[in-house]
Amino acid sequence: MAKTSLTLRKRGDSFVVDGGRSPAAALKFGRGMQTGTITVDGRALPIAAHGPMRTGATLGGDEPVLRLDGHGAFVPPRMAPVEWRYSRPRRGRYHAALVRGSDVIDFSVTRFSGKAVEITVGGDWDQLELVVLAGSFALLSRRRGDAYRTMTIVGAIGPHAR
């Protein structure tokens, strides 16, 4: 199975996929990186992270076209079932994978400051840019949520005068 490497990079106020088929595909985050908009081929769809740890995402609002949420995940076309695997940060990186049989898309981003998501695509995926942007959204949103939780904890136990 041939593998393709892609990179999601920040350009201006959006994130775009380098090496993708559609140069106009973009991801824009809303406030706090908990919501956003994915635009592919002129079609803009809302995306939102869900769960207290932001481990999943739903694209399409009330009528979802894609959901990343453990074993209940699905992707276009026809809501094909997949598995969204997310692992806790280790060795300075966040990792996630979208699995459909022997086809896998791996996502990786540095734990602290990287703005680029490294993506490895194995197999044939319909609407690849849409799927890659949604997976990248979920990973970056999770990282931001973890940063907010860390700041809250540090602020609560911060330096106390003795």
Q: What would the keywords be for this entry?
A:
162 residues; alpha+beta; 12-stranded antiparallel β-sheet; globular
Description:
It is a single chain. The chain is 19% helix and 46% strand. It is built from 1 helix and 12 strands. The mean pLDDT is 84. The chain has one domain. It is α+β, with helices and mostly antiparallel strands and 162 residues long. The chain has a 12-stranded antiparallel β-sheet with strand order 7-6-5-4-3-2-1-12-11-10-9-8, with helices on one face. The chain has one helix at 128-157; strands spanning 3-11, 14-18, 26-29, 35-40, 43-50, 56-59, 66-68, 73-75, 80-90, 93-100, 103-110, 117-122.
Describe this structure in a few short sentences.
The protein is of the alpha+beta class and 162 residues long.
Record the SSE blueprint.
Layout: E1 3-11, E2 14-18, E3 26-29, E4 35-40, E5 43-50, E6 56-59, E7 66-68, E8 73-75, E9 80-90, E10 93-100, E11 103-110, E12 117-122, H1 128-157
Antiparallel strand pairs: 1-2, 1-12, 2-3, 3-4, 4-5, 5-6, 6-7, 8-9, 9-10, 10-11, 11-12
What would the average pLDDT be, to the nearest integer?
A: 84
Spatial strand sequence of the major β-sheet:
7-6-5-4-3-2-1-12-11-10-9-8
Percent of residues in helices: 10-25%
Largest sheet: 12 strands, antiparallel
The structural class is alpha+beta
User: What is the strand tally?
Assistant: 12
Percent range for β-strand residues = over 45%
